[in-house]
């Protein structure tokens, strides 16, 4: 993602409440392939959306309910979601560590109140990170969301915190 | 600045001192990080971020850094062995403290080694890093990239959480343990309710250091950013006599402002279980008495400490377990103390399997896994489907006392009849 390209548009995968990091990638598979994140990809959302990795298209977005990403600190969870091609997640709220991990690797997470309730699988969503709006084009609903704090936006627009440090120097944080 | 902060919460005091300016809840600040750690579950991405994303073979950590090999330890797969090898190499090349196979679980070993002190900000690449809040630190779980940033810069950003006060009143009754307090709080607040909040405990005098760690450990099940116990006489004595250290005091000011205050009556508390499939599905043990179990596990960073093994031995003394019962001390120090006190002998005579210090069955990766349809009662902290093995296995969470009583009968049992 670059500064010019802060608008995301994609097809929705709809999930419910309390999606844990184990639902995203289970501890079993994580430890079986602990040395190589790519090998975990076939098991992404294994129990939630069987065969997810063969069905997802680059640019798709996830819309979920509350407490997305609760559980462990495993960064493999957001990394796998990003690797699968998902471009953003919209949910009612996110678990703290999952939120940080996602921002740190440049995967935008957006907290919204209305969109998760009115969105169905397959809807088309547009997210404007700078204007802080989420639009469900299929349902014709626009929601203004809380703007990202400046630091978080900087991290996202640089494609993650490591890139931010590389681009802007060690004092960027 | 210390004087200026005297009336504030512990969260605000610690984060202000580490930010170098007065902070308040909601602020996004950069804080000095005093201790960073990672284990063999989170270190692989730490290593690849340093080597592949940043391109450093050698670096100078800007703060105290520790690696722990505890999750799949000793290695049960070649992949895990490769990770361990890489951890040892990175540690050696960069002056990182490494606690190798058999040393114990990170959240237990870090305090035992005196790596954490009151007033510290700790970033641990593991969600249960909140455990270290029992030592009056702001200890928070992070992912691998956050740990890397903190290692390389000696600082990282965070959003100052809103402190919530939990005040204990009275003291717990026989057969009730710190774990029951922890489960009570999780059942009361529910999973995920404390995102963006820090828990601050008050009136903890009657609670042992071991039990304090159990309580702060499970704060992450309600998604609290941190869980902080004040520095009291018990803690000062712990530092003085166990570690030979003089430390700072961190206590909240008398006019500290909290988003909420919750009073917990310890007198009324009874032994509890968290029933599958969610950690916040908390009930009195009496509601589940008689449920048959295939495995009992006593251990983990929640309940693998001396007090936990001690009570298990008291209950199992002279008895035989009816179900397989795995006991794993949380660290080699706990193991040695338990050995010298005769606790391990009692447990083995009762028919328990005693394993080397490791996360073991808790993490469902390498040891003591459950088959489909099996039920376990575990002293660990998570019980969602598949956590300890097959996705169709079930896990009840309870205290070591309840676990030991359950092992004797092969079914969930109220421990109060055994004490
Ligand atoms: S014992 Fe369990 S909860 Fe604790 S660090 Fe190990 S895997 Fe995590």
Architecture (CATH level 2) name of the largest domain in chain B: 2-Layer Sandwich
Strand residue content of chain B? 15-25%
CATH topology of the largest domain in chain B: Aconitase, domain 3
The value of Rg of chain A in angstroms is 15 Å
In the predicted model, the low-confidence regions of chain A spanning at least 5 consecutive residues are: none
Distance between the termini of chain B: 50 Å
| Main sheet makeup of chain B | 5 strands, parallel
Strand order of the largest sheet of chain B: 4-3-2-5-6
Characteristic terms for this protein:
heterodimer; A: 173 residues; alpha/beta; Aconitase, domain 4; 8 helices; 7 strands; globular; B: 419 residues; Aconitase, domain 3; five-stranded parallel β-sheet; 13 helices; binds iron/sulfur cluster
Characterization of the model:
The complex is a heterodimer of chains A (173) and B (419). By secondary structure, chain A is an alpha/beta fold. Chain A is 29% helix and 18% strand. Chain A has one domain: Aconitase, domain 4. Chain A has a seven-stranded mixed beta sheet with strand order 4-3-2-1-5-6-7. Chain A is globular and about 40 Å long. The mean pLDDT of chain A is 92. Chain B is of the alpha/beta class. In chain B, 31% of the residues lie in helices and 19% in strands. Chain B has helices spanning 10-19, 43-53, 78-94, 106-112, 144-153, 178-189, 209-217, 233-243, 300-303, 306-316, 332-340, 343-349, 400-409, and strands spanning 28-32, 35-39, 64-68, 97-99, 121-125, 138-141, 155-159, 162-169, 197-202, 226-228, 260-265, 272-274, 282-284, 295-298, 324-327, 353-354, 375-378, 394-397. Chains A and B meet through α2, α4, α5 and α8 of A and α2, α3, α5 and β7 of B. Iron/sulfur cluster (SF4) binds next to α9 of chain B. Iron/sulfur cluster binds at residues 71, 105, 126, 128, 300-301, 359, 362-363, 380-381 of chain B.
């Amino acid at each position: 993602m670059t500064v010019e390209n802060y608008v995301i548009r994609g097809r929705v995968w709809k999930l419910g409440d309390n999606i844990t990091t184990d639902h995203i990638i289970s501890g079993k598979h994580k430890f079986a392939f602990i040395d190589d994140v790519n090998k975990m990809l076939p098991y992404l959302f294994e129990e939630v959306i069987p065969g997810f990795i063969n069905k997802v298209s680059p640019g798709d977005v996830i819309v979920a309910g509350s407490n997305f990403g609760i559980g462990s600190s495993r960064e493999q969870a957001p990394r796998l979601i990003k690797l699968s091609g998902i471009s953003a997640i919209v949910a009612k709220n996110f678990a703290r560590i999952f939120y940080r991990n996602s921002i740190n690797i440049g995967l935008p997470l957006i907290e919204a109140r209305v969109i998760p309730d009115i969105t169905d699988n397959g809807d088309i969503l547009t997210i404007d990170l700078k204007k802080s709006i989420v639009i469900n084009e299929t349902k014709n609903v626009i929601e203004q969301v809380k703007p990202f704090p400046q630091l978080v936006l900087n991290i996202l627009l640089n494609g993650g915190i490591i890139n931010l440090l590389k681009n802007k120097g060690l004092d960027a944080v | 600045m210390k004087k200026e902060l005297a009336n504030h919460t512990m969260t605000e005091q610690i984060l202000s001192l580490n930010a170098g300016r007065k902070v308040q809840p909601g602020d996004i600040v950069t804080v000095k990080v005093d201790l960073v750690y990672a284990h063999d579950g989170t270190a692989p991405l730490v290593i690849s971020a340093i080597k592949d994303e940043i391109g450093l073979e050698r670096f100078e950590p800007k703060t105290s850094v520790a690696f722990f090999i505890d999750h799949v330890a000793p290695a049960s797969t070649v992949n895990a062995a490769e990770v361990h090898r890489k951890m040892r190499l990175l540690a050696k090349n960069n002056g990182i403290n490494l606690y190798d196979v058999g040393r114990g679980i990170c959240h237990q070993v870090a305090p035992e080694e005196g790596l954490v002190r009151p007033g510290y900000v700790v970033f641990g690449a593991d969600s249960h890093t909140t455990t270290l809040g029992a030592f009056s630190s702001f200890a928070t779980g992070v992912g691998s990239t956050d740990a890397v940033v903190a290692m390389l810069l000696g600082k990282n950003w965070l959003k100052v959480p809103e402190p919530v006060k939990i005040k204990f009143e009275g003291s717990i009754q026989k057969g009730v343990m710190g774990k029951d307090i922890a489960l009570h709080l999780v059942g009361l607040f529910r999973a995920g309710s404390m995102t963006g909040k820090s828990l601050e405990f008050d009136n903890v005098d009657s609670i042992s250091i071991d039990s304090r760690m159990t309580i702060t450990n499970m704060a992450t099940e309600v998604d609290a950013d941190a869980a902080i116990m004040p520095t009291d006489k018990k803690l000062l004595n712990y530092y003085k006599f166990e570690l030979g250290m003089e430390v700072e005091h961190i206590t909240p000011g008398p006019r500290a402002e909290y988003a909420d205050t919750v009073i917990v009556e310890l007198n009324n508390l009874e032994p509890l279980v968290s029933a599958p499939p969610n950690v916040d599905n908390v009930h009195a043990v009496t509601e589940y008495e008689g449920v048959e179990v295939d495995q009992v596990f006593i251990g983990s960073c929640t309940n693998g400490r001396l007090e936990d093994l001690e009570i298990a031995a008291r209950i199992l003394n002279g008895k035989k377990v009816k179900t397989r019962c795995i006991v794993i001390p949380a660290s080699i120090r706990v193991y040695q103390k338990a050995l010298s006190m005769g606790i391990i002998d009692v447990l083995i005579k009762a028919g328990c399997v005693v394993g080397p210090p490791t996360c073991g069955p808790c993490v469902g990766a390498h040891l003591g896994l459950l088959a489909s349809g099996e039920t376990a009662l575990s002293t660990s902290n998570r019980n969602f489907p598949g956590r300890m093995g097959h996705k169709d296995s079930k896990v009840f969470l309870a205290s070591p006392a309840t676990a030991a009583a359950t092992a004797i009968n092969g079914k969930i049992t109220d421990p109060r009849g055994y004490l």
